[in-house]
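To whoever is covering the structure queue this week,

Two jobs came back overnight. Logging them here so there's a record in the thread.

Job A:
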Amino acid sequence: MDNLCNEFNTFPTGDFDAALATVKALHAAGVPILAGSDANYHFGARGMAHGVSLHGELRLLVRAGLAPTEALRAATSVPATTFGLDDRGRITPGARADLLLVDGDPTSRIADTLSIRDVWRSGSRTAR
């Protein structure tokens, strides 16, 4: 979490609490919230990396006022719908089968997304 927050409050206009309040207000206004849209580690920016940062981002979305299920949707079905990716973002016949099996219940405790037991990509279980 500290690493994800590392970029906030580093500029005169940076304000982490304002960022959380903005996400909350946008969500309350019905604006689709998309998770994972700014992982820019490959450009040398501190604070984010593809994959692992998403778990922290989900925690921050919950901290901003989204329910855990809404945060999970922000990383799955909402981006798929927003970008017209009909083959992903939900569990349904014919959809791309990229899944995580976790210990716990991330719909009530978002940090449980970090307790990954198994991973499937395109319907095939990956080697651990």
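Job B:
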Amino acid sequence: MVLALWLMLPAYLPNPFAALFGGGRPIDSGKTMSDGRRMLGDGKTFRGFFVGLIFGALAGLMQMQLLEKYPVLFGVELPIFGTGGSNTTILIFALAFGSLFGDMFMSFFKRRMGLKRGAPLPIIDQLDFVLGAWLFAYLASPVWFAEQFTASVVIVILVITPLLHLSTNVVGYFMGVKKEPW
């Protein structure tokens, strides 16, 4: 579980921070598609996107700093992101960007399905950002991705992510950041 959380931290943080510090101009600029529905909706804003990306990337970069002093945590040897050098930075940004992209991609399809902002789509809502992060991480460093995201790590992520997602949404709901607790 420690390894799964370590690997996913740059992907776990962008969306909550985007929700917390978002607002402002929507990415879709209020435009609708030929079906009369918004492309993404008011919940996907430029400010939220960039704040989320920055927080996710900073988390990954801080993890790399921590790794120099603490290469083992709770008995688990922690890996670097990527293959080192600029690939590390690219991979960290890929995880953060992919997380936000996965969430926006699913928002686009939820609008096409006629679901309004905040409408639940169980399982998909909890894993869309994970799949986006995995896709972009794989594209950034396929060998590293295959080495780190073993079957057991993937299973742990698929089990703990919905629980983490629900608990952060409940916290966001009580903080007044989210309109729904899911």
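Note for Job B: The mean pLDDT is 92.

Please reply-all if you pick these up so we don't duplicate work.
Q.
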